[in-house]
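Teaching note: in complex prediction, the entire set of molecules is handled at once rather than each chain in isolation. The prompt given to students was simply: 'Predict the structure of this complex.' The entities are:
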Amino acid sequence: MNKNKAKNADAELQRLRDLLLGADSDFARIRSELEHLRSQFADKEAMIASLNPLLTDLLERTISDNKEDVAEALAPVMGEAIKRQVVETREEVVDALYPIIGKTIRKSVAEAMSDQFSSVNKKIENTIRRSFLPTWLQAQLLGMKRADLLIKGSLPFRIEQIFVIHSETGLLIAHVSADEHENGNGVDQELISGMLTAIRDFVAHAFQSHDHDLQEIHYGQSKILLDLGRYAYLAVVISGYEPDNFYKDVGRLNQKIYNRYYRALRQFNGDLSDFVNISSPLRGFMDTYNGVAEAAEEKKSKPYLLYLFFFTVFLVLMFIGFVFLPGYWRDYKLQSAIGEKLTAVPHLQEQKLSYHCDDGKVVLGGQVSSFAVKARIDSLIQRVPGVRQIDDQIQVIVLPATEEEILASVQRRLAAYDSLPYFRPKLVVEGEALIIHGFVPDARLKRDIGLLLSEVHGIRVVTNNLVVLNASELVEVRSFLRENAIQFAARSAEFPPDQLNKLEAAVAVYRVFAREGAKLVVRGFANDYKDFSRNVLLSKERLDAVLGKLAEMNIAGDVVIPVSYGDKSPKLVEETIQQKSKTPNYRVEFDLLLGSN
Amino acid sequence: MTIEVSKKICMLGSFGVGKTSLVRRFVYNLFDEKYLSTIGVQVTQKKMPPVTLAKKSQAVAFKFILWDLAHIEKFNELIRNYFRGSNGALVVFDLSRSLSIQNPDVFLKPFKETNPDSKIIFIANKYDLVEAEGPVVEEFRQFAKSHQVPCFMTSAKSGDNVEKAFNKLAEMILEAE
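The expected output is the structure of the full assembly:
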């Protein structure tokens, strides 16, 4: 028992010893580790190097997740620290920031200046271009220097917005903005118009200025111009320096709106449907002042070279037109007129003619069959208005023709005159000469027929023996001949000697016309008997008695047409049947037949 | 086709009755417990839903231009200028205060004189602060009846009846057109 106790005590003692000795070795290890850590901590650079990745990652994550909290926490400390740093080391801060901020500022200023220069240049250009008066003259009239005038006109100016506001209610009627997408910086235009109206009313009340209205509100670089109308007022928001007469122009715009919409304005109840297109004049006004129109114009006028080319082409065409076209046109018309003139004349179409005009000079060419045709063509063309000169190069080629061909050609040409009274011409062809006899009713016709026949192919000379005998003269002649009828004794065919003078008178008249181919018609009558056959026989006997006398007077038989009527021709003796039965018809009368047949 | 017609509406009432709060609730659907007194006038606008009347073929959508006027202590020409051209007015009262100190005549009479054809609605605001259908409410109903004006119990805080009151005014204006 005791042995066991002693054994246990040794074991406990040994454990205690182990524990104590083991702790010593642990302490020694811990001490050495502590020494190592202490040395590491003392080496700050090594410490930062080891912690840097961890801390960076941790900070990035924290800032990213809680940006606002971090900013809120750091702001006071950082702000204060930066402020203090700036105060204490101003020079260093300036030096540090200069490369960054200086560059930014320089760039910004350069861009602003560039825009400004561009604006000023454009304004000067517009000022010069817009006025019809030279700037020096404008300056003289305004009593200022030209440079001052140009500078004044070139100062930056822009209309930002235009409101049309109903004066009484403050309701907005129309609104335009220089920036189409701008919407009053988020402020409702209705509210602006309402508040402007309230401000206007307030100012008028506050300063008891019933006779005067609020005309301008300035804020910063901008101002609002108010122009009061009868029912509505204009509020024009501008920036920069308004040009001369701008107020007057705003007034004119207001008046223009009033003139166009006065009914709608007077009855305005909030309904804007009566103000259709009211934005157009506002937009036009704004664009005019903001140079949008000029800019568009400028944009359009860029292809100067193209314009110059077209302009040059236009000038050349105009020159050609002015120089050549009138002459060409005149000659064209002249040629047409000549063509019409020639085609209107029968038989000329048969000729091989050519003609052209050159500045009023007519050059004729081709071939014709006679000189008469050539002369006639010349004569016709001479009478065409606009003909200055005729260069007749027509060749006359007289081709030989037989008498039959000539007569056929003449008859064809004379066919047009078939309807004329007593026009039975007698034609004689002698070689290349044509002789024409007969009667025509007037002198002009005689000439025309002569000319016409002169153009007959194969004829060189026409002898025109046509006699002008008008209708009344012919009637007179025929009447004279009838009055000189030979009166026979009853049942007698013996030529009464007392009637010889009548026969001679009739023959004398006949001889005048016989030269031109006229024929004497001799008609015998008898109603002496009741028997017709005896009357016919007696009339023939009387006719023969007269023909015998005519033969004695050398009147050839082939120019006399004897006709025996007995008592059956009351028509020719102009007697009625009744008269005939009572009145003796014992005569032989004369008549004239003009023409070859 | 709907035609849009703008109408000028004045918000009238004594100070602190909740005119601005009602406008804020109606226009922006917001409410703020903080009280800021209106100086002069504040203009806001609200587009109303289109309405088609039986006697009219076209639908009309009113755009209410709300002129929230500051408390009118004493009527003057400036106030008349503000009133001019109004098509309607919402006269606001505070149900939590005695009616006797909220005399509307100081602005209601000149408003009617300036705009004889305009439509008026009484609004008893802060309905949430009083006993529902209690004696105060009944007193106000009688008061509105005596003026022959339609009335609405509203709460700008909860939004109760706010929309209804404005819609009623729109309806009255449209009917009168």
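Point out the following to students. The longest strand of chain B covers residues 2-13. The domain at 2-176 of chain B is CATH 3.40.50.300 (Rossmann fold).
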